[in-house]
Amino acid sequence: MTPRLALVPGEPAGIGPELCVRLAQQPRRDCHLIAYADPATLQAAADALRLPLQLLSEDAAPTRPGDLPLRVVRNAVPGVFGRTEPANASAVIEALTRAADACVHGELDGMVTGPVHKAAINAGGIAYTGTTELLAAHAGCDVVMMLANDIVRVALATTHLPLREVADAITAPALEQVLRITHGALRRDFGIADPVIAVLGLNPHAGEAGHLGREEIEVIEPLLAMLRTERMQLQGPLPADTAFLPQKLTGFDAVVAMYHDQGLPVLKYSGFEQAVNLTLGLPYPRVAVDHGTALELAGKGIADPSSLFAAVATCARIASRRR
């Protein structure tokens, strides 16, 4: 059966709505998409792009370019492309939580999300650190953020932390959880029977045998040794400055980076347009675009839809494998 996926555009004033309109122009056989969005916002995006858009009932089958099944989530006030409106923050969160509800209850098989604007949501009176954290709290489970393209998959041991807090957050229990979730997702969602995971060190040169820090000796190395007794293939801790060399990446199925800016700049440089953001550990697949709201591009028809196209294809593939 074709998986049914929620499509959440994200920030109404950003490029998310127009990317969804572009997506609706493409025939799909790998999934049935249902948008959770404000119809007026989607129509305004279609008008700006001069593309056809026909919003359908959620179970209707698209037959023409521009057909898009919809579950209505209305904004509080009309949106203007390029200008966030805090009053619409509740609608952004409602779309995400309604889509998550449908996935948790088995009504839908996965979720694809567009970019959100954290400052606008917080300005609307909603405490919000990110969609990954929101969905983890909603499902009541631990998750791992992974970004991936055709060249490399990078999972993060810590996500949105100030750099001075990272070292204290690298504990054996926390890192073990990240490695187990990543290992399980590679097997279940990517079909890799015996994945090889490269684990980066925290410090330059992976600590240089303790001369540049002891986290590798005291935390990372003992944990990896313990997990290897369970036949997990873990390489490291590796110096981050050489782990991403092309000849080394061919031997890894994923890389676990200790902090956000240790791994993600390399991934984005290697293929930003096709990269996607996955939330590992949820009871359903969730894949997001790997870019922001790009307010300065919104409504101009020049935003690149490649990441959203890749996110839908990835989510459909994982949902089909899980089913």
Give structural attributes:
323 residues, alpha/beta, Isopropylmalate Dehydrogenase, twelve-stranded mixed β-sheet, 39% helix, 18% strand, globular
Task: Write up this protein.
- The chain is α/β, with parallel strands linked by helices and 323 residues long.
- The protein folds into 2 domains: 183 residues, 3-Layer(aba) Sandwich (Isopropylmalate Dehydrogenase), CATH 3.40.718.10; 137 residues, 3-Layer(aba) Sandwich (Isopropylmalate Dehydrogenase).
- The chain is 39% helix and 18% strand.
- It has 12 helices and 12 strands.
- It has a 12-stranded mixed beta sheet with strand order 3-4-2-1-5-12-11-6-7-10-8-9.
- Helix 8 links the parallel strand 8 and strand 9.
- Helix 3 crosses helix 5.
- The longest helix is centred in the middle third of the chain and has 17 residues.
- The radius of gyration is 20 Å and the shape is globular.
- The N and C termini lie close together (9 Å).
Number of strands: 12
What is the residue-mean pLDDT, rounded to a whole number? 96
Tell me the Rg in angstroms.
20 Å
The largest beta-sheet arranges its strands as 3-4-2-1-5-12-11-6-7-10-8-9
CATH topology grouping of the largest domain = Isopropylmalate Dehydrogenase
Number of domains: 2
Proportion of strand residues: 15-25%
Tell me the helix content: 25-40%
Unreliable stretches covering 5 or more consecutive residues:
none
CATH class of the largest domain reads Alpha Beta
Q: What is the rounded distance between the termini?
A: 9 Å
CATH superfamily membership of the largest domain: Isopropylmalate Dehydrogenase
How many separate helices? 12
Q: Report the order of strands and helices.
A: EHEHEEHEHHEEHHEHEHHEHEEH
Largest sheet: 12 strands, mixed
**Derived structural class:** alpha/beta
Which assembly state applies to the chains in this document? single chain
Name of the CATH architecture of the largest domain: 3-Layer(aba) Sandwich
Overall 3D geometry? Answer: globular
